[in-house]
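Example record

The entry below shows one chain as it appears in the dataset: sequence first, then structure tokens.
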Amino acid sequence: MTYYNSSCPVETTLQLISSRWKVLILRDLLEGTRRFGELRKSIGPVTQKVLTANLRSMEKDGLLTRKVYAEVPPRVEYALTELGRSLRPVLASMAEWGSKYQRENR
């Protein structure tokens, strides 16, 4: 797990989920375990390389787990840890704010 040296809790949170892709990964994994291909389709125009880098970073930070099955072809599943699931209210607040903004600025 990476330790972010900041006295500001908001900055620490941003360091963990600062990427546009990380927030979308969290959104999808809050619904349950997903395979790599499912995440890539759901997230949209993200390259395999960028998605892999973000997933590895999130795993290193303790936000998700990666389970590899010894099958041919290989199957890899991602799921949020308890720490990752604890971001649910943060994402819910972001969704609420975004919806309000969309309604008021159309």
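Notes for this example: The chain is about 60% helix and 15% strand. Residues 3 and 15 are 10 Å apart (CA to CA).
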